[in-house]
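Task: fold both queries, return tokens.
Query 1:
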Amino acid sequence: MLMNLHVYLLLTNHKKTIKMKKIILLLSLMFTFTASAQYGILSAVQLNEGAEDQYLALEAFFGPVHDLAIEKGLENFQAVWKVTSDSADENAPHYIIYTGFGSKEQLDAYNSGTQDWVALAKEAHKGSISASRVERIMNNVSNESKERRNYHLMSVDNTVFAGSIEPGDIMTITPTKALNDDFENYETIFWKPYIEKAILMGQHRYWGLSKVYERTENAYEGMTHFFFNFPVEGSNWWDGVIDQDSFKFQKLQEGLNAASEHSDPITLELVSVHN
């Protein structure tokens, strides 16, 4: 009897150890954008008709330039996303570019216009593209786009990021308008823990909330925040996480609805990433 109890305890402890190792492994595979992208510029790009191939060639040209810019500390992160969801808005973007920065000072320096990007591009492509061709390409930047609307963002809160980010990954962004001062607290104090539980259960990859603090004149005025979500394909993140019939959840939903208005989520597919 004592021997059986001893074996049982050994097996139980072994299972707990394996479970803990799995949790530690999962956490070790997670990283957070906050260290590299506390601030960001989200650029909504609407292309001229028939200019997609030209645009993608331009982004491929800029890949080594972004790598060098990151190496020099001019930016921390850059990603290009293709919009894959439909929209009734005739001015809806075809691509989203997100450039991340570790501080507002870094973003302001990037946006100041003092950086010689032509010289940087020549350095990035030295030995592969002639300096004269680099100049021609740089002088024709934006010819492929009809409009670019830029939003300067400050991170409010986010979860850890499960796994790594690769071309082909799917993300949704949800433009949102805050209706009262409780909005950020509802999202970060009450809603975020549900998402964190879903991530630990392998049902979601990332959730982030950013606030718009500046925008270009042509950018839409009706949004104050953006949500960023990385789903797990084939998974409903709320399964086993939220009891949607519970009194607690219904009251939380009432508070959230009173605090914000959400536009339809925009589905994106990652084209390229530099970090």
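Query 1 returned. Query 2:
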Amino acid sequence: MKRISIALTLAILALAGCESNPVTGRQQFMLVSEGTAISESKVAYAAMLQPLAKAGKIDSNPATVARVHEITSRLIAQAVKYRPETQNWEWSVKVIDDPKTVNAWCMAGGRMAIYTGLIQQIKPTDDELAQVMGHEISHALAKHTAERMSRAMAMQVGLGALAMTQQNSQYGNLTLTGAQAAAIVALELPNSRTAESEADRIGIELAAKAGYDPHAAVTLWEKMARLGGGKSRIDFLSTHPAPVKRMETLAALVPQMMPYYEDKSPRPSYPLR
């Protein structure tokens, strides 16, 4: 009886929470509106970064920060063209000093982080790093963050029960409300193959329009695959499942993206906070 009740609850939530995405046209399960996802992610982002900042693990290497900002600001400029309303987002990116973690993410509203482990272990070129950040920005553009927050909340079934304390050695002990906690849990949930395909397609286009070689999308995943075969902790792969034909799909997109990359128009930058 309990299983039936849970299944019925989830079915009702699914019916009540579906909406069409204006970017992809896909029907998404959305218990959390994008506006709510953005406001709650803002609180969660600050809470996550606070203990890391106190430990001196945020933006500790000026050269790395400058590199990440240069690449990301050009990508954001293209993202704003893609969805003009995102001009009002509080775009930001932080470099987290954690050499063991190979990961990057973007919350709703454009709040991002990348770990030094990705830069040090993958050793991406600027073109490859642009593919990483472009992919993450694309998740926010396509409302994937709000979608994953909705999944995180639905997994609790009783939405009011999601108020929780995050026990995490990396971020400290965080006491957050339901939606704020869901914003953090969402970062650890794997993306669906559909969401990954959408982010791949949008991300490689953003990077090409920002002046970064689309071939790098393929070489990046080749590096990820090689590193993932070892003993390194690849958090990026755990939340970004790589289908068998992913690199082939990206390679097939390259010819379509080359005209954007070869365009000689100026590549604008977005002023990061």
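Both queries returned. Flag for query 2: The beta strands are 18-20, 27-29, 92-96, 104-106, 111-115, 164-168, 172-176.
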